[in-house]
Amino acid sequence: MSPRFATQADAPIAVHLVDAEGLQSWIDQQPARLQTWVRGSGFKPALGKVLLIPGASGAVEEVLVGYGTAATRKRSRFHLAAAVPALPEGAYQVASGLPSDLAEQEALGWLLASYGFDRYAGSKPKPVTLVAPDGVDAAKVEAIAAGEFLTRDLINTPANDMGPEELEAAASALATQHGATIEVTRGEDLLTQNFPMIHTVGRASDRAPRLIDMRWGESGPKLTLVGKGVCFDTGGLNLKPGASMGLMKKDMGGAATVLGLAHMIMALGLPLQLRVLVPAVENAVSGNAFRPGDILPSRKGLSVEINNTDAEGRLVLADALAYGAEENPDMMLSMATLTGAARVAVGADLAPFFCDDDATANRLMQAAATVADPLWRMPFWDPYEAQIEPGIADLDNAPKGGFGGAITAALFLRRFAGEDVNYSHFDVYGWQPSAAPARPKGGVGMGARALLEALPDLLGL
User: pTM here?
Assistant: First the structure.
């Protein structure tokens, strides 16, 4: 399903946004018939509340949508989208009450609210469309929504239909759509091509591990996106309990997010050279699974002691980051559903990120606020470096103690990205635990829209 705005030819129904402070003033300016209807309904303009206003024929002619109060709006986002589930099928157009500085954000929220995952069961979302508000770049917002839809679809698809091969197929389809090139290193070729940790993590599965390498653009600054593509994570020999395994289809959420961001970049034609690296594996259990206590070689030459096979994401990312850094890109980003520690620290709604460059971090935070894609900066805390140095090997994949787990994981990745690359790491959750405006329960992108907003400044586009 491609998210699309309605047009005037769809005969849109007028929508009036009214907040608690402005309701009475709005009523006073309306014809007597409409005043009577609104007062008689007892309408209260809480966020998402809807009042349908019929015309002389009895058909809906206008809609009143609650916009809450300044306090309630501060506690949520995509306020207009909160009304979408309550609206009947049809096309709509905001006639009044929409703040101009929020027009693009609210229009995007409406498109995102039209998402539904119906591959296996259920009915398609009802067609409730919106005419793009004045001043909104409709094509841009549609491209952003389409990238988010791709991310959600990939995460929501269960692992039996979204293994390494299917993730490769999704990346190939995206490359074909935008005229990008793609190369894939699979199975035993990972060893001959020096990606030993990607191979080791994925070798226990009968679904061959692989490294997906997509490129687009021939001029401009170089941007490399690296996404964790663990299509299912049993925990390996450090087997997860059943309750922790239930959502592991989303452990490729980092890959899904960078592919969604790649779609946005390519669809909008940003003048840069894009590279997307996705190590795609399944962390399974069999006789040849890697073990606690193993010491693994890596592409960069650093040895890694395995103290927990359930800390596998950083291993596959490490080889991919080292490979990406070899081309010295102007900026490199990794996105991964990496640590439970990040969720404990900031919850499910915030995407923590790690960045050594203050100017980059500050611009990302500004962009996050602008596009309602919340981020929170975390530290690459150098004093914790000792915790990832076990002595028997160069690095430890799972330091004992558990404190600062998101930070030590990020420090591990930074060792492979290198000191000469402008590198940021995003520890995303990739899942909406309960439905919210524009975000149904299920897979969700985090951080991609903030990055897209910031890239022109960060890369001088």
Answer: 0.97
